[in-house]
Each structure stands twice: as C-alpha cells, then as structure tokens.
Design a protein that fits this description.
single chain; 124 residues; alpha+beta; 5-stranded antiparallel sheet; 1 helix; 5 strands; elongated
C-alpha cells in the first residue's frame, strides 16, 4: 500500500479582476473636459480636450492638434478616435487621477440614489 502525498487545500478564493476593475473605458467618462494626448496604433498623436468617451473607448476630442509619424501637423475642431485604434492615453502631470475618478463615481452614486428615491421628475 502506497501513500500519495496531497497538497494542502486552501480555503481562500483566488483574487479575480473583473473586466470593470481592469478596464479604462468606463472610467474615461469622468475625464471629460481634461486635456490629454492619445497615440494611435497607426502612429498619429492627437492632443486635445476630451469631450466624450464611451464603453468601447471611442473618444471625441475638441481643439485637437494631430501629428503624424512624418511630423506633419494639422488642427481640427473635433476629432473622433475609435477605441480599438488607441495605443495609449497620456493624462497631464497635474491631474489627480484618483481624485477625478472618485468625484465621478460619487456623482454617479448620488444621481442613482436621487433616482431611486423618486426625486427625479419624469419629462412630460
């Protein structure tokens, strides 16, 4: 009769990151009005003010300067950047990222509470 050694089992569940915890897309809506730099996978760099962001990380920037790999520069009033084409996003050095996210989440929570209490009036 042989005895096989068994590894002790752990009762702790492994930490899992949901996509909401590790995804930037839902948080971008809190940065509306902030200047940022976006580089696309094609090598273009856009500098402008974030006007809109959605869950697919599609962005709308206003007062935008676009620079290509060849260093040619163009200026646009509005630019729409598709989420799948974004390589990275750079926020300004003076932005308190955690503060902006916390304020945005608090605003959403307060709006949800107000809606649940029935304070929000329906449009007629």
């Amino acid at each position: 009769m042989s005895s096989a050694a068994t590894a002790p089992t752990s009762t702790r569940k492994p930490a899992t990151n949901s996509s909401a915890d590790s995804n930037l897309a839902p948080l971008l809506r809190h940065f509306v009005g902030i200047d940022l730099i976006v580089e696309t996978k094609q090598g273009r760099t856009f500098r402008g003010r974030l006007r809109e962001a959605d869950g697919y990380m599609n962005l709308v920037l206003s007062r935008t300067t676009a620079q290509s790999k060849e260093s040619t520069s163009e200026t646009f009033d509005w630019v729409h950047i598709r989420g799948p084409t974004i390589r990275y996003i750079v926020f300004g050095a003076n932005i308190d990222i955690t503060g902006v996210i916390k304020t945005g989440l608090d605003r959403e929570r307060a709006a949800g509470d107000k809606y649940r209490r029935g304070i929000r009036k329906a449009r007629k």
